[in-house]
Amino acid sequence: MNVVVTGAAGFLGSRIADVLLSKDSPILTAKLLLADGVKPRIRDDQRVSNIVIDLTSSDAAEKVIPVGTNIVFHLAAVVSGHAELDFDYGLQVNFDATRALLERARKLTSLCFVFTSTCGVFGGELPAVVEDGTATQPQNTYGTAKAMCELLLNDYGRKGFADTRIVRLPTVSVRSGKANRAVTSFASGIIREPLNGEEAICPVSEDLELWLSSPSTVVRNIIHAATVPAHVLGPWRVINLPGICVSVRTMIQSLREVAGEEIAALVRFERDDFISSIVSSLPVNFNNTRSLKLGFMVDTSFRDIIRLYIQEDLQREL
């Protein structure tokens, strides 16, 4: 398979590339094109080529999706906090660039297009448990652009323009590296920073709940989306990826149980109304039944997510 990953220099995009190049990859990857606005990490593998490109440029789509491409994993996006503060740029990257890539895919045959959406497409008055087909009512610009893309991808799939699949990601925790401008960035920071001996500021109440998944589980699930038979998806090609509902209080308690009181005490609460207003609008209870039947994975507990971060990213013994 000839595969393209956009947003390949990002946290999830880079990890997807690593899995696709590994011997355990569920997709036999012959060529892998990694595209981003900054240069993706150099890999010593002849199958890999890199392209640094602005996806909003007029010729980007043709360069990113060459003839012969079989699968596109489209992760490139302006994150939630940035999109909220810069409305025009958020729409240019998150919607206009996606539409251009879809038009390019339409000109090619039998192309599988996997799009990463978000649980941020939901908002307003929601049922107690959210289903794949629950109506979207986003309360932020990022979620609005993603919701528009979902509808567009479904129509491209309905018309047979491309084999489209949409996966809605839970909040990913624990992310390694530095904090980004996503409003949910604290969900990693309140674990990552203390484990690295640094103070972390939590901008929301400890009662706030989040729908979470570990990075490794999300990466596996995004790749798995490309392997699900198209006829199994049905006419609505959107999948809420499995996650677990965890309160901030439980997250910190889990950190205390895994790493000790001294580490957990490095979390300090300092409310941010901008962040709190957006994050509190996100749903936290989803029905995982359909996604699990389709072979997607789910984490067991937040304690295990923390342990995974310590072992894989910090490379420490528990």
Radius of gyration: 19 Å
Sketch the major β-sheet: 7 strands, parallel
- N-C termini distance: 39 Å
Helix and strand composition category: alpha/beta
CATH class of the largest domain, named Alpha Beta
CATH architecture of the largest domain: 3-Layer(aba) Sandwich
Structurally, the number of domains stands at: 2
The number of helical segments is 13
Looking at CATH, the homologous superfamily of the largest domain is: NAD(P)-binding Rossmann-like Domain
Helix residue percentage: 25-40%
Shape: globular
How do the helices and strands follow one another from N- to C-terminus?
Answer: EHEEHEHHEHEEHEEHHEEHHEHHH
Percent of residues in β-strands: 15-25%
GO molecular function, one term: oxidoreductase activity
Protein name: NAD-dependent epimerase/dehydratase domain-containing protein
Keywords: Carbohydrate metabolism, NADP
Domain NAD-dependent epimerase/dehydratase: 3-203
Describe the structure.
InterPro entries: DenD (IPR050005), Epimerase_deHydtase (IPR001509), NAD(P)-bd_dom_sf (IPR036291). The chain is α/β, with parallel strands linked by helices and 318 residues long. It folds into 2 domains: 2-169 and 215-240, NAD(P)-binding Rossmann-like Domain (Rossmann fold, 3-Layer(aba) Sandwich); 185-211 and 244-285 and 299-314, UDP-galactose 4-epimerase, domain 1 (Alpha-Beta Complex). It is 39% helix and 17% strand. It contains 13 helices and 12 strands. A 7-stranded parallel sheet has the order 3-2-1-4-5-6-10, with helices on both faces. The chain has a 3-stranded mixed sheet with strand order 7-9-11. A two-stranded parallel sheet has the order 8-12. Helix 6 (186-195) runs parallel beside helix 9 and helix 9 (248-259) packs across helix 13. The chain is globular. The mean pLDDT is 93.
